[in-house]
Write a structure and sequence with these properties.
The protein is an alpha+beta fold. The chain is built from six helices and five strands, in the order αββαβααββαα. The longest helix is centred in the C-terminal third of the chain and has 14 residues, at 104-117. It is extended, with a radius of gyration of 21 Å.
Length: 163
């Protein structure tokens, strides 16, 4: 990787508003246009994710009043729930501690704060981990989301569940 590719924003000089033709073309790309343009040593432009996680845009809206650790935890829970097509996920506490680099005590505080904010509810715990119901910001705020289609409701009878 060239040294210019490792350059941070604070080392760049502010340039006049007339962007280079490559930057102008990249920023003007229409949705679905798969083109890249050379700017210096870099190729910038469109990229399409072929495999991976599809998340609603609101998943990346910060939740007001939460710190960086809470936001990082929330995004992990969002990725593992909504990113897999469900509104819940099951995670072992040790896995979350490792992913976030948090102590057990700090993780407890983070999860408590997310629950108090309405972002999650712990529904079940067993030796596989805790099952969390993870809410998007629209759900927390009690407004409908145009980005989400929910599954049909299906009530399981007690005898059906025991089978």
């Amino acid at each position: 990787m060239a040294d210019s590719a490792r350059q941070s924003a604070r080392t760049l000089a502010t340039e006049p508003l007339g962007l280079s033709a490559a930057l102008r073309a990249a920023e003007a790309l229409a949705d679905g246009e798969l083109l890249r343009f050379q700017h210096g040593e870099e190729w910038i432009g469109a990229a399409r994710v072929c495999r991976g996680v599809l998340l609603p845009a609101e998943a990346f809206e910060p939740l007001p009043g939460l710190g960086a650790c809470e936001q990082a935890c929330y995004l992990q829970l969002i990725r593992r729930s909504w990113g897999e097509g469900r509104n819940f996920c099951r995670l072992a506490r040790r896995e979350l501690e490792s992913l976030l680099g948090l102590s057990p005590r700090r993780l407890n505080a983070v999860l408590d704060r997310l629950a108090a904010r309405g972002a999650l509810s712990a529904l079940h715990r067993d030796n596989r981990g805790t099952l969390y119901r993870v809410r998007l910001r629209s759900e927390i705020e009690g407004r409908p989301s145009e980005e989400i289609e929910l599954g049909a409701r299906h009530l399981i009878e007690a005898t059906e569940h025991a089978a």
